[in-house]
Specification:
Elements: E1 8-12, H1 24-32, E2 35-38, H2 41-50, E3 60-62, H3 68-80, E4 84-88, H4 101-109, E5 114-117, H5 122-130, E6 137-142, H6 147-157, E7 163-168, H7 173-184, E8 189-194, E9 202-207, H8 208-217, E10 225-229, H9 239-250, H10 255-266, H11 270-281
Parallel strand pairs: 1-4, 1-5, 2-3, 2-4, 6-7
Antiparallel strand pairs: 7-10, 8-9, 8-10
Helix pairs in contact: 3-4, 6-7, 6-10, 7-8, 9-10, 9-11, 10-11
Length: 284
């Protein structure tokens, strides 16, 4: 027998592509909720129609990046009245690159019970398929759309000792891969996963530099994209390798940016890399 939905806020994960990936508990919650809140109300309506869950006159509210405090207060009013409120993201797990963070925080501050019906997440599915290390990973969400911000973010992430996971738009994929190859290093193992769980699912694995070249020459891909970059090589970086990396970086950047790039590629301390850069610039 299905568990009765309790008063409070329940975060419900929805399929990232294949509608059959929804869980039985999620369907129970959608049937039993007093109020439904969705990042995209049209997507939730369609999902409920597919699975035969009627709206039956219940409130269906939109809550997304542009909703702001008024929408949050409306949801909180239902919660403080003791209503059973379900929040569903457009696709995947709520709060993973979606706007539910402020709603959950506000609900907790108001003393409202918050729970979740777990389910699909594109980042985790891509990690499982990637063949890259899974013992440690860092989900970085979407990189900044502007080149400067994107490159700065990549420099900060380069020394993370685990697999990096990014969401990316098809239009920015070429530029992001090119920046990743330059800043993180072209030899790192990487994966581009596209249209996961859908008809044209594709997982492309290769060194980061090869992927950058492949997508630079290809037509703009379609669909949702996850990019994964494996951790840098372990062990000591040879003096010759450090020299080569710095010489290449100094040819393109200021000393500060070159040092930051090489630190991201190698994980070496900034002081060590900076001293080596100064030595190269002074001809020693």
């Amino acid at each position: 027998m299905a568990q009765t939905l309790q008063a409070g806020l329940l975060l419900v994960s929805t399929p990232i592509g294949n509608a059959r990936d929804i869980t039985l508990r999620a369907l129970d919650a959608l049937r039993e909720a007093d109020v439904l809140v969705a990042e995209d109300t049209r997507s939730l309506r369609r999902l409920m129609e597919i699975h035969g869950v009627p709206l039956a006159g219940r409130p269906l509210l939109a809550y997304h990046d542009h909703s702001g405090p008024p929408a949050r207060q409306k949801v909180l009013a239902y919660l403080t009245e003791g209503q059973r409120v379900v929040y569903a993201s457009e696709a995947g797990t709520p709060l993973i690159a979606d706007p539910g963070y402020d709603l959950v925080r506000a609900a907790r501050e108001a003393g409202v019970a918050v729970s979740a019906a777990p389910g699909p997440a594109a980042a985790i599915m891509a990690l499982s398929l990637s063949g890259l290390p899974t013992d440690r990973f860092f989900f970085a969400g979407f990189l900044p759309s502007q080149a400067g911000g994107r490159r700065k973010a990549l420099r900060a992430l380069g020394a993370v000792p685990g697999t990096l996971i990014f969401y990316e738009s098809p239009k920015r994929l070429k530029k992001s891969l090119a920046d990743m190859a330059e800043i993180l290093g072209p030899g790192r193992d990487a994966v581009v996963a596209r249209e996961l769980t859908k008809l044209f699912e594709q997982v492309a694995a290769a060194p980061l530099g090869d992927l950058a070249e492949r997508y630079a020459e290809a037509a703009t891909p379609k669909g949702e994209i996850v990019v994964l970059v494996g951790p840098g090589a372990e062990g000591e970086i040879g003096e010759d390798d450090l020299t080569a990396l710095l010489q290449a970086a100094l040819a393109r950047h200021s000393t500060k940016d070159a040092v930051a790039e090489v630190c991201a590629q190698t994980g070496l301390p900034r002081k060590q890399v900076y001293q080596k850069a100064l030595a190269l610039l002074n001809g020693s």
